Amino acid sequence: MIKLGIIGMSEGNAHPYSWSSIINGQFDGDEISQVGYPAVATYLEANKETLGIPEAVVTHVWCQEREIAESIAHSSGIAKVVNNMVDMIGEVDAVILGRDDPENHVAMAKPFVEVGVPIFIDKPLVYSQDDVDWFAAQVEQGNFIMSCSSMRYANECRIAKQELGALGKIELVTAVGKKDWKKYGIHLLEAVFSVLDDPRPISVQHIGELDKEIVHVRLDSGADIMLHLYQHISGTFQVTFFGQEGWKLVDIRNSYSMFRDNMIEFVRSVQEGKPRLCFKKTQQLMTILIGAKESYDQGGRVVLL
């Protein structure tokens, strides 16, 4: 049995509740709704017969506010709330850093990485080149670091990938999502690049504005990817692939399925002793994410990758 610790919590990110429930096979819908995540309670209830990962259990939880940690523990059946996140070291086999504030990821991951505790880090892994370089160096030294958006495991994207050949040579991909580039751009990138089997990007350009962020990525194949993150639209994740012989719209809705498969892949990785997702794929997407920020900061300059 793989014993896991989970670390939360960043504002608006319900993953510590969701992922702990998916792994441990239990949840308190009233508790989750009361703290502000009724949609999470709804999809857990709809999928309760498939909750639980038999090979793993979340045994420890830490949040900067103990009250939140105790709420997560109560909802998900986590046995121990620790006073300091490093108290998990020696008690768990691996750690999930379930926060989406990338500026804090190096500092929070470092105590675990330095002693060889396998870690999964919520998206986006980083938002600066210095942090990319730090994680890459740790991976080079043989440390276990896994990070991605769960969009990589979205069932809708898997179906699109198996049907992609029928579209012919891909010329254009468009993607639309709600919220901001910093935290949600990785969702669109992960969805697109997983379907296309992680092609090589050669440039990125931010041509939008705050609350209406538009990013253009050019691939080495000549294909264009247009990514749109709009703050004030209805919540959605849509990707459309346009080929020379056909097109396909992918409407991504099944959060539960992608989260469950993501957690299963992490547990399998811990069992096998190394991440099943190559870090270079994550690193490539972080380079695009940061490149778009650099482009925006420089007035929309094209950034070569």
From TrEMBL:
It comes from the Bacteria. Residues 54-134 form the Gfo/Idh/MocA-like oxidoreductase N-terminal domain. One of its GO terms (molecular function) is nucleotide binding. SUPFAM superfamilies: NAD(P)-binding Rossmann-fold domains. Pfam families: GFO_IDH_MocA (PF01408). InterPro entries: Gfo/Idh/MocA-like_OxRdtase_N, NAD(P)-bd_dom_sf. This is Gfo/Idh/MocA family oxidoreductase. It comes from Sphingobacterium phlebotomi.
